Amino acid sequence: MAQPILVTGATGNTGHHVVSGLLAEGVPVRALVRNPERARLPEDVEVVRGDLTDPESVATAAKGTAAAFLLWMGYDSTGVKETVESLTRHARRIVYFSAVQAGEDVDSVWGRVETAVRASAREWTFLRVTGMSTNTLGWADQVRTGVVRAPYGRASRSLVHERDIAAVAVRALLDEGHTGRAYTVTGPESLPQAEQARIIGEETGLPVRWEEQPEEEARAEIAEAMGRDFADSGLAYWASLVDTPEPVSRDVEKVTGRPALTFRAWARERAGDFTRPA
Ligand SMILES: NC(=O)c1ccc[n+]([C@@H]2O[C@H](COP(=O)([O-])OP(=O)(O)OC[C@H]3O[C@@H](n4cnc5c(N)ncnc54)[C@H](OP(=O)(O)O)[C@@H]3O)[C@@H](O)[C@H]2O)c1
């Protein structure tokens, strides 16, 4: 029996595709989850209780694994070094779900995780994602009213399908030739946010129009939900994307051998998540 691959975030948007991609390749999968009773995973998956904020539990979960798919939730990197060391003591290869911000700011949470992985992993690959298409699910309530009111409709983003992130991860976990690489993982095009909302409307059959929200109103709302720092940095980032769209990279295609999925394809697949109240 081959050594299993450990998947963190296995119950989430991307992780569950990593799990199914590995199983489809005949690779044994172990999932680290916080709540095994609640986790809905394929029968073949070995489910282990653990928490990324608890390095001991990570070491236990990583014992005997060949490689790990790692994500780090939230914006607080406290304890990341200890957790990564617990992982790399056992798993030889780490594929980390990072963000493009890591390349620009080593003090961002993604930059800090990358530093920790680089310092202790024998083999590593970083998947630096621009933005996930799933972010637009945050508009779902507004989509059902026909109006998405948000700031910077002209900010262009190269949102990526979670299945593409997972497909790149599976190749990096299983194949040779990805060690020491930081891939820029994006969708195939950079689309203004107002255009994304219009596409969601077309694919759900619920006509949607964009309404520009004044920046200060948005800042107050986002700060209330996510904190002032997140509101300030998020708004500054979206503002920058009006004149400088997010980059489009060919790395998904280079690694998987097929083009990245379009935002329209994603919206079609996830239409039900917009039309059904959560
Ligand atoms: N959104 C973006 O545009 C963007 C861009 C770049 C990078 N990212 C990265 O994307 C990741 C999120 O990916 P996603 O959307 O696929 O995930 P998701 O659907 O938000 O799910 C989060 C997963 O993380 C697990 N998790 C949360 N806290 C944990 C902890 N303390 N210990 C162990 N597991 C924990 C959750 O498991 P349970 O709740 O079941 O325990 C769940 O499986 C983040 O790491 C973020 O940095 C996002």
Topology of helices and strands:
Blueprint lengths: L4 E4 L6 H10 L4 E5 L12 E4 L5 H8 L4 E4 L9 H9 L4 E7 L1 H4 L4 H12 L2 E7 L10 H6 L1 E4 L5 E2 L4 H13 L6 E5 L5 E2 H12 L4 E4 L2 H12 L1 H16 L7 H6 L6 H7 L1 H5 L3
Parallel strand pairs: 1-2, 1-4, 2-3, 4-5, 5-6, 6-9, 7-11
Antiparallel strand pairs: 8-10
Helix pairs in contact: 1-7, 2-3, 3-5, 8-12, 9-10
N-to-C CA distance:
41 Å
In CATH, the homologous superfamily of the largest domain goes by the name NAD(P)-binding Rossmann-like Domain
Gross morphology: globular
Poorly predicted parts: none
Range of strand content: 15-25%
Q: What is the succession of H and E elements? A: EHEEHEHEHHEHEEHEEHEHHHHH
Number of helices: 13
Biggest β-sheet, characterized? 7 strands, parallel
Tally of distinct domains = 2
CATH hierarchy class name of the largest domain: Alpha Beta
Mean pLDDT value: 97
Q: Please bin the fraction of helical residues.
A: 40-55%
Give the oligomer, counting copies of the same chain as homo and different chains as hetero.
single chain
What's the CATH architecture of the largest domain? 3-Layer(aba) Sandwich
CATH fold-level assignment of the largest domain: Rossmann fold
- Please compute the radius of gyration using only Cα atoms: 19 Å
Number of strands: 11
Given the helix and strand composition, which structural class is it? alpha/beta
Q: Ions, cofactors, ligands: which are bound?
A: NADP nicotinamide-adenine-dinucleotide phosphate
